[in-house]
């Protein structure tokens, strides 16, 4: 009887493990399948005359000859670096104030900031564009940078993180003669590095792949970011090789993959920082 029960449990355990592998395999195929197909197609372009498939990096070289890829990449890098740095600083300062200071209408103001997360970008893009044009920043990279500096999610994340840091640390610094700015930059901000890494990585990945705002805010080719510049390759779908288009997509993915690869450790630390508290 005991042997039968153990056998049934082992069978149920094996069945559950097999089901997990099947589910994970299907999820991996659905996630990586399009990426693998894109890479294979980019590496095996079809000759437009002979219709022969050749394996190589010729499609990647064609990207640099058809569009000013380095210019678009530089525009994207400049925008995302300044936006990420600005969001990290603004979110840290706002989160610190909401976590460690008491002032009138604090909860109402914080609720209003969180409410902006529920407003779609398409709803606010027209008034934002009017403000940008009124400031004389239309069709410039600053039109993409300045409106993106404040972040509601980053403010919320930093507030929650600062609330987990003991207030006694700031009080001890104040007893040693430190002012509010020195307490923030010398005590609290270094302890919030994991949360800052999350804000920076998320800002980089989002704005590196952003398409809608650059489409509205910029007109000149010299101000195009990489996702917007790659759209000009779509003409090759009808008259040239689709491999060139997909090669441009692969090239645009590399910086985001590198940031995620090197930033996954602080990202993991930031996400699990409050587990042991």
TrEMBL record:
Coiled coil regions, renumbered to chain: none
Key word Translocase present: no
Membrane topology: Multi-pass membrane protein
Domain ABC transmembrane type-1, residue spans: 73-263
Keywords: Cell membrane, Membrane, Transmembrane, Transmembrane helix, Transport
Keyword match Cell wall biogenesis/degradation: no
GO cellular component, one term: plasma membrane
GO annotation (BP), single: transmembrane transport
Chain segments annotated as transmembrane: 21-40, 72-96, 108-129, 141-162, 183-208, 242-262
Record-linked SUPFAM superfamilies: MetI-like
Localisation: Cell membrane
PANTHER family: ABC TRANSPORTER PERMEASE PROTEIN MG189-RELATED-RELATED, SN-GLYCEROL-3-PHOSPHATE TRANSPORT SYSTEM PERMEASE PROTEIN UGPE
Homology family: Belongs to the binding-protein-dependent transport system permease family.
Record's protein name: Lactose transport system permease protein LacG
Source organism per UniProt: Microbacterium foliorum
Gene: lacG_2
